[in-house]
Amino acid sequence: MNPAIMSEADFKSLQALAPGPHEKLPSDLDFSFLRVYIESDNSPMKDMFHVRHCVPGEVIMLEGEKGNEIFIIRFGRVAIFRGEFNAPVILSFRGAGDMIGEMAVLEKKPRSATVVALEATDLLVTGQAGLTSMLNQPPFLGLNMLEMLSQRLRKMDETHSQEAVVTRALSGQVEELESEKSHLMELERLRQETTDLIVHDLRNPLSSIMATIKLLEKVLPRDISTESRELVDIALTASGRMQRLVDSMLEISRMQAGKSELNLSVVDLEALVRRVTDTVLRPYCNDIHYTVTIPPDLPYIEADRDRLERVLVNMLDNAIKHSPSQGSISVDVWLVESALQVRVTDAGPGIPIEERQRIFERFAQVAGEKGKRRGFGLGLSYCKLALEAHGGAIWVESAPEGSGSCFVFQLPLRR
């Protein structure tokens, strides 16, 4: 049977809604490690998957049809939507390393959405037998990644239902609030309590995952450990980024409550910038070009080393997230009168001038190119609070070349 293909007019309309071909697609879950494992020569699962080649506009799965296959995207991009082809309700866009179609197979229910290839796309395809095999693999797959995904998605559905209940309850409370100020304060309190609960619930399983990965490095035979280096690096990088996000959320709450104090020491900013930049950006050197420019004889500063390091990491993570493939990131340190400036410039879609103040607010979402959201503001909110505690500041400018953003933070030489 020939695969279904969208009409030329419908496909052009769908393409117009998608991010540009060189933009990175947002993804909460990256299954690149699974793709690497499946395609390795010694993988027991290699024969359980076959490759499907899809042309632009090809329908990979159709809403309402029986779901008996799951797909891992080798390369290419797809659109996920509900409704008719001529009036799609976009749910998300996915790219290389993402998995699609697993929920229908896990729950034995019809497809909940339609998936269409936006460009030439290759998929690794398997059925129920392949899924069962994945759930019974050794430790790093035996942690039941797909079950965790299923539970996470179900939890999201439960959260949406709970949010509806909470919203109805809040509506009744809001009517009793004496003023708009007390209304806003109550909403902020509820949001903060919810955030704190989520963060604390995340810390233990995240710590267990990181500890398990590091333990595997030590207990695996040397030949297996060497062959699996790419998988371990992917897992450690992803876990490390999530750990920094959790730590930032907790630290933001402490700083806003005035319960966090600076641990000051003399800091060699040049050494700190070079070390953090290499640590964060080197794993992406095949996809992102970066440069570091620091003047000689840079004076030392008095600062909280750990917080300053986290500020740099957050700024670099932000630049990575919004840099196109084969884009560039530059890190420059400037001596400006009685202060030091660190500038991180990316080649991403940039930030509208009217949004450049709000982006540093907690949970702020700023629409970028074609409505793309530029993060949740947690990392940048942390940067703002940490730098202001040092008597410094942070802001964003247009990149010198006119494309991209330049995030700048400034610290006084003496407190």
Notes on the protein architecture:
The chain is of the alpha+beta class and about 425 residues long. The protein folds into three domains: about 130 residues, Jelly Rolls, CATH 2.60.120; about 80 residues; about 150 residues, Heat Shock Protein 90. About 45% of the residues lie in helices and about 20% in strands. It is built from twelve helices and 15 strands. The strands form four sheets. It has a five-stranded mixed β-sheet with strand order 10-12-13-15-14, with helices on one face. Strands 1-8-3-6 form a four-stranded antiparallel β-sheet. Strand 12 and strand 13 form a beta hairpin. Helix 2 packs antiparallel against helix 9, helix 7 runs antiparallel to helix 9 and helix 9 crosses helix 12. The longest helix has about 40 residues. It is globular, with a radius of gyration of 24 Å.
Question: Could you provide a short overview of the structure?
Answer:
The chain is α+β, with helices and mostly antiparallel strands and 415 residues long. Helix content is 44%, strand content 20%.
Give a topology summary:
Blueprint: H1 8-17, H2 32-39, E1 50-54, E2 59-61, E3 70-75, E4 78-82, E5 89-94, E6 99-100, H3 102-107, E7 114-117, E8 121-126, H4 128-134, H5 139-142, H6 145-174, H7 180-219, H8 222-227, H9 229-256, E9 264-267, H10 269-281, E10 288-293, E11 301-304, H11 305-321, E12 327-336, E13 339-345, H12 378-389, E14 393-398, E15 405-412
Parallel strand pairs: 10-12
Antiparallel strand pairs: 1-8, 2-7, 3-6, 3-8, 4-5, 4-7, 9-11, 12-13, 13-15, 14-15
Helix pairs in contact: 2-9, 7-9, 9-12, 10-11, 11-12
